Here is the input.
Amino acid sequence: MKIWMDVMRTLEPVLADHERLFDAWDAGGVNGLVLGPLFFDQPKLFPGVRWESNRQPQATFDPDPAVYRRFGVTPPAAPLVEVEKRRQLEQTLMAAKARGWSVWIFQPSAGMGPGGDGHLLADERTQAALYARTVDTLAHYPMVDGAIMDGPEWGYEIAPHHMNRRSYIFDDLPPSVAPLCQRLGYDYAALVAAKDRFEQHLHGLDAKRIRLHASGGLLGAFQLLGGDADLMAWLQFRIESLTAFFRGVRTTMAAELGAQVKLGVGPRSAAFAPLCGYDFAQLADFMDLLLPKHYFFQRGFDGMVGTLYRYVETLTAWNPGLRDQEALAVIQALFGLTLPGVQTRSDCEDALTPAFFAQVVTQETQRALAAVDDPARIVPWVDAGRAPHDGDPMSAGHLRHLLQAAQGAGLQQFLYHHQGNLTPGEWAVMSELCGKAWQPLTSDYQPADEFIL
Here is the structure.
């Protein structure tokens, strides 16, 4: 198994010292680099606090006005010219390619100019602004293999208090989405009503009904959720709309830059992906890479255990008298997920057992790999360490279990998020499994271990 290294917000330390870092990463099993968003002077985001740099972030290149004219949109403002940093960035990208690494830009639309005033998935002018920036970014860096998109996606959290409000499912379907519903053949008002009924239904769960239907497969889950055909239509709309969006990006990039420029997208883990609108099989038909989130930590955001915990917490708060076991049965009916040894929410605090990795990580990896014809097209994001996505710590031992389970399921490579947070324990495990084991007493490399998001 091999590693792709993610270089995010703090580009400068890597750019200025890339040859030494690349030597160490190469020895430890790295054969891919994902870099971006492409801004200098990006602020560091520490858990619970935002630290601002002394300067405003500046894009790494000047926009090409001709690209934006072609798409009928306004280009973003030209950034400050950082001659030496720009030179270092290009040298870094070329040095990675010279090693034979796969090199990708993360979030190539970052810094896009103004679009329309509607929802990204529905507003054609906003999409044109995204297309233009993506084309402009990739044209400025022709040495890279392609670009990785992280979203957009529909929400998946039901907890109204969750820190990641963009993921709150009941904020979906604003009025600006109505034209998209019509274009795809859906009744907007019916979908909104179904969404509202779903929320009401989750406030009125009955223990007897859960015991009757939760273990009844597709048909049982349908009855558990009220037998609501429009609810199923809403869920299908989410898949169709998101698939259409990414297909539009793929088609536009191929027309503008040629089929040799690759695209990847990072959905949530296989169990949650359909709720967010991701259909792995359909996306695999036209996207080059899928990068599911192999995030399994408690609390924070985007972690599997944390999401399940919040579902239990929220469902029992909405339904006085509902037990944790019954809430977990609803979760199993919705997502097909059971966590070994987890019978109550308190069990989530030590859910990351060897049995968890053997069962859940294996299942999620196998499901992702089933969507593609080549396992090299699945490159899961992996996050662990001191505060993965502001979540509870995942130890180096947890990381070892995770990677061994994924490798046993057929995984060939993963994307580590991100080098600024890489701890000595994680690098010791990763290098041992994927390359030459790191020797901290003799190596001139020490992981950054910066404890930032």
The longest strand covers residues 2-7. The mean pLDDT is 95. The domain at 2-164+238-434 is CATH 3.20.20.80 (TIM Barrel).
